[in-house]
Design brief:
Largest sheet: 4 strands, antiparallel
Number of helices: 1
Order of helices and strands: HEEEE
Number of domains: 1
Bound molecules: zinc ion
Structural class: alpha+beta
Helix content: 10-25%
Distance between the termini: 45 Å
Strand content: 25-35%
Length: about 60
């Protein structure tokens, strides 16, 4: 089971570069289609190299009119 500190470190690493796996650094990652509610969305991302899965969280930040 991952510690909170480890999870924060992984999250920080991913936010700095969301194009690579935060666990192993591979660019071979695949994102699922997102699920939405009123002001947020989520999608699962899978690393095809180390087999880790994580969930990206999105927040509504504005609208265009
Ligand atoms: Zn990986």
């Amino acid at each position: 089971m991952a510690t909170e500190e480890f999870k924060k470190e992984i999250e920080q690493r991913y936010l700095e570069n969301p194009n690579i796996c935060p666990f192993c650094g591979s660019t071979d990652i695949t994102a699922d289609h997102p699920d939405f509610n009123d002001d947020a969305a989520w999608r699962d991302v899978h690393c095809n190299k180390c087999n880790q899965t994580w969930t990206e969280e999105f927040k509504l930040t504005g609208i265009t009119i």
